[in-house]
Amino acid sequence: MRLRSVTVNWLIGVFAILVFRGLFLTLRLRFHTADKTNPFAIEGGDRFIYCVWHDQLLIPIFGGKHRHTAALVSQNQDGGFVAAGLRSVGILPIRGSSSRRGAQAMRQLICESEGKHIVMTPDGPRGPRRELSLGVIFLASHTGRAIVPTAFTCERSWRFGVGWTDLLVPKPFSKVHLLTGEPIHISQQADLRSEVTRVSAAMLAVNDCGDAWATLTPSSTTDAALTSS
Fold it and tell me: Sign (positive/negative) of CA torsion 202, 205, 208, 213?
């Protein structure tokens, strides 16, 4: 029974990947990124921790070619499905959990992600939705890598409920906006809970800017930390 379940999940995963690849070929992508923080760019020697809300994860996965990206993925069965999907688009999945055996998972992530950007969903794996946890702050303070706040929005989209959160799915032929804010450096001596507040505010600001782009109000999208391309 378990073998059949694994096989069915694998087939569903392959089908989903093909569908999303086809969908993203129809989309018009617009990048609004702070200097040298485009995660798909070839140039640039800095490696960052990209902070991505769970509900927006689909867009950065399929929105460009990943050349040096790693992501922390749960060790449960659903995580296996996600890991297979990430490998198919060039993202290195690192199996672990920020909530179970957290310190071990963080050490593994630091070790295996050398030379790669790290993508983390700071409101996971169980939520609450869009509430930043300490994990991403801890990682930044111990690696010296800066956190890059991100936002991914669409002018036309669906939202599907997935457990404790939902999933943003662009509609075919719609315009999609991919945004990054200025990198945020966290010192080892920093008060982690204060830094959670600071990074949360940065995520909110970038997402407000993304929502403005998606609703076609250019006058409200001006932000010194972002440049449109």
Answer: negative
Residue 2 has pLDDT above 80, yes or no: no
Give the count of domains, the chain: 1
CA distance 180 to 59: 13
Quick check: 147 and 51 in contact, CB under 8 A? yes
41 pLDDT band, cuts 50/70/90, is confident
Please, are residues 78 and 168 in contact by the beta-carbon 8 Å criterion? Answer: no
CATH number, domain with residue 70:
3.40.1130
% of the chain at pLDDT higher than 70: 83
> How many Cα atoms sit within 13 Å of 175 on the Cβ side?
12
CA torsion sign for 143, 153, 60, 71 is: positive
pLDDT higher than threshold 50 for residue 225: no
Domain that holds residue 79: 2-228
Per-residue pLDDT, 78: 56
Q: What is the DSSP letter of 1?
A: -
CA distances (Å), origin 133, targets 32, 108, 109, 193: 26, 19, 17, 9
As a whole number of angstroms, the distance between CA 102 and CA 89 comes to 26
Task: State percent of the chain over pLDDT 90.
Answer: 55
The single-letter code of the amino acid at 159 is R
For 75-84, the pLDDT digits (tens) are: 655 556 677 7
